[in-house]
Amino acid sequence: MVPGAVSKAPLRAPIFALFVVAASGLAAMAVSCGPSAGPPRIGNLHPVKPGAPTDACTFDDSTVLGGGSVDLSGSGRFTVELDVVSGSTSPAASNPPGSATDGASQNGFYAEEVDFTYQPSDPALVIPAYRGLDYFYLAPGGINHVFLNLVSAAALDSLRTAVTGADSAIVSIQIRIKGRYSNGTPVESNQVSFPMLFFTSGTDLSTLCPPLPNPDGGPNIFDRVAPVGPCGDIGGQNGAPLTCCSDPRGFVQTACGS
User: Fold this and answer.
1) In the 3-class helix/strand/coil scheme, how is the chain assigned residue by residue?
2) 20 to 30 A from 61, CA-CA: which of 44, 204, 211, 253?
3) Beta 186-199 vs 68-71: how paired, if at all?
């Protein structure tokens, strides 16, 4: 399927919005602002690398994502890395010792939420806007790498109800970050658009990886779905396959972790 495809039949099930998983640099409330402060800017979105569930999430900064696809037969999640760039080019004095933001620049930006709105290609889809709460500090002249999961549990339930068989759903996701300067003045970033294609391959995870005979004569070993997706997730994102960890002794292969 390609972006621009329409669903075979009108999709009328409610689809709820997305949510933020993590961001770097947690911060407290802010206190003051310097004159050179500017609004933050959302830059590129990058793919997150596959890894074992216990590994830290890493991303490929040499590749810029222009869109994505999700096989709803998998986990249904889609994790990306978002570059958030400071709009302040020069730092001001640090906040005084003992303040709520001791040592933080007065030109810093304190993110509070990431807002999502949705423009589906199918006019029958009604997708409400969503506000994802998240808190991180962005230093003047700096850049933060924010990891986002673009499909919430509620959205996944609704999409799996609506998208069946050969149906598909394409949604342009609008992303904007809101927060405050150090003096409490509200500020928001630019808005970026990210198109997503949702479909289902029909893969049944309950039967994809059947039990394997135990060579030691004990109970059968249940095979596992391989975590070949981002951050130790299973497949289904941007063509990552839904496959199994096939080691009859339970000592899984490299792609499956330990």
Assistant:
1) CCCCCCCCCCCCCCCCCCEEEECCCCCCCCCCCCCCCCCCEEEEEEEECECCCCCCCCECCCCCCCCEEEECCCCCCCEEEEEEECCCCCCCCECCCCCCCCCCECCCEEEEEEEEEEEECCCCCCCCCEEEEEEEEECCCCEEEEEEECCCHHHHHHHHHHCCCCCCEEEEEEEEEEEEECCCCEEEEEEEEEEEEEECCCCCHHHHCCEECCCCCCCCEECEECCCCECCCCCCECCCCCCEECCCCCCCCHHHCC
2) 253
3) parallel
Asked if 144 and 23 count as a contact pair (C-beta separation under 8 A), the reply is yes
In a domain, 108, yes or no: yes
Q: What is the pLDDT of residue 222?
A: 67
Q: What is the CATH number of the domain that holds 62?
A: 2.70.50
Per the domain annotation, does 110 fall within a domain? yes
Q: How far apart are CA 59 and CA 81, in angstroms?
A: 7
Average pLDDT, the chain: 74
Rounded Cα distance between 29 and 257, Å, is 39
Q: Do 146 and 19 meet the contact criterion of CB atoms below 8 Å apart?
A: no
Please state, for a pLDDT cut of 90, what percent of the chain lies above it. 24
In a domain? residue 62: yes
Q: Which domain holds residue 23?
A: 19-199
Domain count, the chain: 1
